[in-house]
What we know:
Layout: E1 4-10, H1 23-26, E2 38-42, E3 47-50, E4 54-61, E5 69-74, E6 77-82, E7 96-105, E8 110-120, E9 126-128, E10 130-137, E11 144-150, E12 153-158, E13 165-170, E14 176-181, E15 188-194, E16 197-202, E17 207-212, E18 218-223, E19 231-234, E20 237-241, E21 246-250, E22 257-262, E23 273-279, E24 282-287, E25 292-296, E26 303-308, E27 325-329, E28 336-341, E29 346-352
Parallel strand pairs: 3-8, 9-26
Antiparallel strand pairs: 1-4, 2-4, 5-6, 5-7, 7-8, 10-29, 11-12, 12-13, 13-14, 15-16, 16-17, 17-18, 19-20, 20-21, 21-22, 23-24, 24-25, 25-26, 27-28, 28-29
Amino acid sequence: MVPKIILALFLLGLLSCNTELSENENNDKVDLSNTQSIKFQHPTYMQNFKMGDSISVEYSTVSEKVADSSVIYLNNVSQGKVIGTGIVHLNSNHTGMQTITVKVYYKDTVVSGSTVVSCYSDIKPVQYAYKVLNKYKHSPDDYTQGLQYDNGFIYEGTGQKGESVLKKYKLSDSELIQSYQLPSEDFGEGIVLFKNYIYQLTWQSGIAYKYEKETFKLLNRFVVQTEGWGITTYENNLIMSDGSNVLYELSPESFDVVRRIEVYDNIGPVGQLNELENVGGKIFANVYTTNFIVIIDPKTGRVEGKINLEGLLKQADNPKDAEVLNGIAWKGEDKKLLVTGKWWPNIFYIEYY
């Protein structure tokens, strides 16, 4: 006879994937070679659900033995033991991949099995239009990769090998104040101001640079394990994009990854995340090759809004060689942004609504 157990799970997202096991659970002898001893009938691998969905989990074991008990885990966090059929209420709060694991305990051994489901956002993003309030000069020679506003000045990081720079200039008249040329082998990417420092990514060099904000003096280099695209701040850390739907929360001291944030809307993963800006605690991201800026809740990974900037480039001054939208800077004003793009002749001051 093959025992079958049905458990009900509730996906609401999960902030932490770490847990402390009890003393007995730490001493359990898990038969890792026998992970296929548990077969999942439902949910299927990579099945899609939304945050808040109730999921019926059905599995069977191949053993003829009578189990002493079973334990269900979500992302390695124990949800408690059940005997026979049981109901487990799971608390979670992030989108993305969720790992469901079952351990079945027998008198002399433990068998386990896992499956993975994909958790979409449970909300539909708010759709925003825009209007142009003002426009400023921007060098059409600058392949914009990072943009930030500070006290009347624009800090910008540009790309292309041999042309990548970090620069500071006045927003009002584009007067250049400072610049720093990156090594010719580097393709510059996003920048961020954090405390008294500037951090700058490179695309595929596997390096991030740290400068003194006032002098542009190079202070440190960090190893980056992925491609560098966009970067911004989040509380006491940094958040970086790599062109996928994943954001990485980083330690500013070491660039070690503190947390991965998988970004989803109600339809699925939102990839091609590029230049980033922290706007009042939310992460605004250019979606590469599109006219969209998405508004992301960094705590959950949900996309809460989309700004459609279709037609903006048509309002630029002679944009014949201009490429895609890329560059978001915030002056601290509600629902107002500075935006530009690669080789664009203008920075636009917009209001979204």
